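lol so apparently i was supposed to do this last week
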Amino acid sequence: MQSADVIIVGASLSAAAAAKRLVDAGLHTIILERQELPRHKICSGILSPRGHRFLLENFGPIPREALHDPTSCRGVSFHFPSRVSMSMDFFGGTTPHLHRRYSDHWAIKQSGAEVHDQTSFAGMEDTGRHVIVNARRRGEDVQYRARWVIGADGPSSLVVRSVYPDYAKQIPWFFVGQKFHDIIDCPLDEDYFHFWFHPGLGHYTWSHARDGKQIVGVGFKRGDNFDAKHRNVVKYLGDVHGVKLAEHSSHEGCAENFGPSLINRYVFGKGNVLITGQAAGFLNMIGEGMSCALHSGAISGEAVVEARLRNRPVQEMYRKMIASEVRRTTDQWNPLKIAFDRPHEADFPEALMKLSLRERGLVLRDMWRFVVLYKEFKWGRRIAAAAMHRLMTLGYPEKRWL
Ligand SMILES: Cc1cc2nc3c(=O)[nH]c(=O)nc-3n(C[C@H](O)[C@H](O)[C@H](O)COP(=O)(O)OP(=O)(O)OC[C@H]3O[C@@H](n4cnc5c(N)ncnc54)[C@H](O)[C@@H]3O)c2cc1C
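anyway here it is w/ flavin-adenine dinucleotide bound
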């Protein structure tokens, strides 16, 4: 059995950030990753300015191989069924278009942690004094003993399942899939990430340029038909935007736990086990999850360092410290914050005000119709309750967290 102060499950950005804090504080940290590194990660790779700052401050300049082409993104373009479009630049200039295979591997290496790839977390037992982690490496069982475990294993987290076996049944699951097309003609500005607020296309519809191809992506409630949804979007892009694409050359998709950050239903773990990143439910508006993965990951690492220093239970530390990231993320979905503050990293109110009065009316109507698509999940009352709590107490209620 191998021993460490901390085992982190998953070698992604939240893991790199957590590991950086732990290694800097002198803790022996082992990261377990089920795939061989550098590993593929399905992602558009558009990092928000806050995420960009985090990478620069903690890991240094991003190497060229960790970027796709175009290497940067200016902002986001929203498109509406009424045929109004609006583009918003990110605050503070362009942001990097990360190639997740290499950016994540680079950040993990920069953290200085020991990495065991091709090693899949399978289960664990928290004895109170330490955690025994069971894993599989190339068909063999391996065991680790650690004082603390951090689950940074993404949306379909096995760490979450082993702490809360029923959790996966309590939340709605979405499927997001993207297909890569050769471009015949594409008038969509390649400097922007394009998103459609269109209930007829799906819950999440996007397109952007990457390495000479055009990505067309769709997100919808699990159970619908990917090919049919995607075909519908490609036809719409052709009819409405004049986009002409060749048949796709490859495709990919995965399950997403979209929802917990909207309704302040995060999962932070129990005893000596912390959950962070998207596994904990962090996801910003338009599915931007890298910046909150980095920040929540760093906080999970800091919580362990603090708990050790002060000889306090790690959950007590983590739940106090993570409240700031909960505010950052859940504010992005809070209607009061959207209306009266600037919770996002691009200026939606300014872009809206640039439109004519009639267009503004159409945009607000189309956005409302889009939101109605999510009615079946019954999030409205919980979002309103969380927004009121935020207004009265300056935070979100901790009792909603698992
Ligand atoms: C199609 C798509 C597009 C996206 N586009 C963007 C975007 O443009 N910008 C943005 O900011 N975010 C985007 N996101 C979201 C973003 O990718 C995630 O929010 C972010 O990667 C979460 O990081 P994480 O560290 O929490 O976990 P993840 O990146 O999900 O990584 C989890 C890691 O854990 C490993 N793992 C899983 N299970 C085990 C196990 N049992 N044992 C060992 N290892 C395990 C996985 O292999 C993986 O390496 C997108 C997501 C999707 C699906």
